[in-house]
């Protein structure tokens, strides 16, 4: 069982953050190249509290990725058109093609979290959502897509400090709105919803990884490491061989390059 209270130490990163981050980003770049050349696809689903640091993780995750082969999907309230369909419909529209990686900044888990807590889904709808989500994820995995699921956790005190920082910084204020404070007021309800979410959807095929987000640097290294480990395990990491024809033409044009 996943208990979020076990992810609140907030220990400082014990290492050379800049050096280790650069090493991880180089590793992740190779992993993306492997997805491109071996025609693999992956989904990275990131959930967590408001101001937990999801955006910072995503920026550093993709810093050295080729933008042609990944997409970041920030998920907010569904549009009227999306509401007219099954709740998973809008996510089907955003699934990655071959040799691409899709990153979801919030996900289909809104059905059993915000929609449950705020009353946007009926009890029958959100209770049915667990089975529908597990089936959806299993379908992606069974058709060759790697799925990584992260939840970034912060304490109430740390979240409050970050909200204060946003409010006091003129160029960060846009990141905070009424929803943040409405969600904050119902933290206990969200806590219960997340507990059931983990219990019902932390499956063998699609496990959750919880990141202690209370120290930003440590959280970023932990998140990128977890993503790299999962992606690397599901794609061949051998670089492609050059064909004899390419070698012949290249030598004629360039001479030896070794």
UniProtKB/TrEMBL annotation:
GO MF annotation terms: polyphosphate kinase activity
Record's signal peptide: none
Pfam families documented for this protein: PPK2
Alphabetical keyword list: Kinase, Transferase
Top-level taxon in the UniProt lineage: Bacteria
Domain Polyphosphate kinase-2-related: 15-233
Family that this chain belongs to: Belongs to the polyphosphate kinase 2 (PPK2) family. Class I subfamily.
Identification of the protein by name: Polyphosphate kinase
């Amino acid at each position: 069982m996943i208990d979020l209270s076990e992810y609140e130490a907030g220990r400082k990163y014990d290492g050379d953050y800049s050096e280790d981050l650069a090493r991880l980003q180089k590793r992740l770049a190779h992993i993306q190249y492997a997805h491109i050349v071996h025609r693999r696809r992956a989904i990275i689903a990131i959930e967590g509290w408001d101001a937990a640091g999801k955006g910072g993780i995503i920026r550093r995750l993709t810093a050295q990725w080729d933008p042609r082969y990944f997409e970041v999907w920030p998920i907010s309230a569904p549009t009227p058109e999306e509401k007219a369909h099954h709740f998973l419909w809008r996510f089907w529209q955003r699934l990655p093609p071959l040799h691409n990686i899709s990153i979801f900044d919030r996900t289909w888990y809104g059905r059993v979290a915000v929609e449950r807590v705020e009353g946007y889904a009926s009890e029958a709808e959100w209770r049915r959502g667990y089975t529908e989500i597990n089936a959806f994820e299993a379908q992606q995995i069974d058709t060759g897509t790697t799925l990584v699921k992260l939840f970034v956790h912060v304490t109430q005190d740390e979240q409050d400090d970050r909200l204060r920082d946003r409010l006091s910084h003129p160029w960060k204020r846009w990141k905070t709105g009424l929803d943040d404070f409405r969600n904050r007021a119902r933290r206990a309800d969200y806590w219960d919803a997340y507990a059931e979410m983990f219990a019902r959807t932390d499956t063998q095929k699609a496990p959750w990884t919880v990141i202690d987000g209370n120290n930003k640097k440590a959280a970023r290294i932990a998140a990128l490491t977890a993503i790299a480990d999962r992606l690397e395990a599901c794609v061949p990491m051998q670089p492609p061989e050059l064909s004899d024809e390419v070698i012949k033409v290249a030598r004629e044009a360039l001479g030896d390059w070794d």
